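B., you asked whether I could sanity-check this one before it goes into the benchmark set. Here's the sequence:
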Amino acid sequence: MSSVARFAEADAALSAGRRAEGIDLIVQQLTEDPAAPAQVYRNFGALLIRDARYAQAEQWTRVGAEQYPRDFDLLNLLGVALRRLQRYDEALEVFGRCIKLDPKNITPQINAGNVHNDRRDGPAGLAVWTKLVRLQPSNAEFQRALGRSYWNLADLDKAEMRFRLASRLKPDYLDAWLDLANVTAERDPAAAIEVFDQALAALPNEPRLPESKTLMLRRAGRSADAEAYLIGLLTAQGDVAWVHQQLGQCIMERDRLRAHIHMQKAIELAPDRADYQVGLAESLGRTRIKESAMLEQGYEVLRGVADRMEKTAGNVKVASELFTRVADYDAADALSNFRDQGRLYAEAGKHTALLAHLARVKTPEDRVELMAQHKIWGDNLIAYAEKRAIAHRGPRKPDGKIRIGFMSSDLRAHPVAYFALPLFQHYDRSRFEIYCYSFYLGDEDKLQERITTLVDKFRWKKEIPDRDAAQMIADDQLDILIELGASTHMNKLNVMAFRPAPLQASWLGYPHSAGLTTIDHFILDPYVVPAKRELVLEEPLLMPKSWIAMGELAFPERPITPEIPQARNGYLTIGTANNPYKYSKAMVQTWARVTAAIPDARFMFIRPEGGAPSFRRHMTELFAAEGVSADRIRFEDVRGAHMPFYNDLDMSLDTFPQTGGTTTCEALFMGVPVVTRVGDAVFERLSYSILTNAGLGDLCAFSDEAFMEIALKLAADRPRREMLRTGLRGMLKASPLGQTTEFAADFFKMIEGAVVAARQARPVAETA
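And here's what the prediction gave me:
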């Protein structure tokens, strides 16, 4: 077939809507005869870009450019394809060649300016767009692009002015309105809602605006207003998929069951929206009413959509968490590899996802990579915060006291508060002042009320942007700020990026370096601190014995059945109450091998996941592969009321590589010894510290083989387990873990030393 005939056939296929066929015919012809006219390459490149086939577009426009190296349009198309592929340096080089070919043509200048904005290069973008705006001051697109350059420079006033001008020049310019609303929201989400109302007046039929307004209402903390707005839209417009989806998202934290009705309706109306199904699966997995049944339903929804969902950071996070909760480790591992998945989270700013990522560590290289992932997240956040610096009032008038801030939304009925409480109970008010900062969205409980009475100031702000929270803390002129919750639910780790205090530290809530170089210290102890310095980003600040103490509220007196379960049952019972996000396939296999090696031993899971058929099935299969039959596995479907079940355990096996913390303390407090596997990183050493301080250092294994040996030795040592059943609680109380007054004294002595050292070093640093 001649080239003319084949191109004609391709045109016919394209005209008939058979795009794949037409593209294949053109590729075939260009492969056989690269010396086709330049116009063929131009048209083909433009077609591929319109179809979002950017890799093919780059391939064939490059072939064409090699044939016609001075063809301006071909080179420009090549640059556009490279930009779409995010190969920004190459794109800029190509656009530079275009500018040399035709200096008066502003198209490649526009494209180069877009690349600078894509990569958030504020100075370079500003140079290009300032020039173009001077050429065409009434061009709304240019004004908006200039606004984005100012935004990348964090000059919000000038960015807002340009976006507002663009929307006046072109009232139907949706992207200008969206940019104006979003830049306004950086300072005041409430003001951004007014922008959306103005945009809706200008574009009453634009479907993206109501959804964007809904998201902004939720971002501003006005969930009730968002709900009312969405209900109004349903009344006015009837069933609309996105409205049902957003309504479900809006109310799910306070009414999961009603939320699921709306989310399921959205899926019925838009069955091809995989993201709607992922959203439903996530909410089902977070539902605490009929938890195991809801988890199972969420898992089934996710299984049906996993193959076609977009691999965004949010979707991968949901899928990884759900698959891991039901022990479908093959499905979880198929999502991505350790490096790519962690970096996907980090680049997307999803720090919370990195917590569950700890348990996937397998090698020394993984540990170093995990640190890099946290630092990617941290560096991006610091770059953002540096452009939005807060004001500092300078050092306060000396009064002889050290002012310490504790930042956590968990200063309530929560394990973080239980462990922190001894510090609030036992501090010298003549030497220290304690300020607490909480962003908890719920109602005050009795423990929060009690902490409020113990400390000097308790600032509770339910709805406050990160920068405003940082400014509030800076205005209190602290000597040191200690964050306790990292990025867990309702906490504001991002505040630390603004450096609201001259000295900053992490403690308690997150078992890894957060990733921010603005955090100076990580409060640890001689056992938790890694031997390898590269596994801690901050400077370790070491407690002399233990980094935690077990206050009386954390561990109130609970009855212990004196007789060990083995004496009552005639067989040994091993088990865990640890969260499955800490599990891995290899770890479960190790548990199964220990169980198999003890004649007639049972293994008990004390978790709400234990009621989910998929969790039971996967666990039963893994244990069976190691020789443990189904009748030797016990599942207890329980959340919150798990403590009495320790009376049914003879011994507990710790999770690894991420070990237990609170659960290890709970088990020991109930007379149940724990065997742990010690690793190199902080999150692999928590139980090591707890057990060593409790006088049970011999239950700490430093290899997989030793873990098995220690577990089997403990299982065989019935007299020791009988002694620990009734004596372990007393051992804890007599150990550093139980000496809360001494713990507090050590803690404040350590903090005082760090603050004094920082004060002494600061003038030297300022002079330098």
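One thing to flag: Confidence is low (pLDDT under 50) at residues 764-768. Otherwise nothing jumped out at me.
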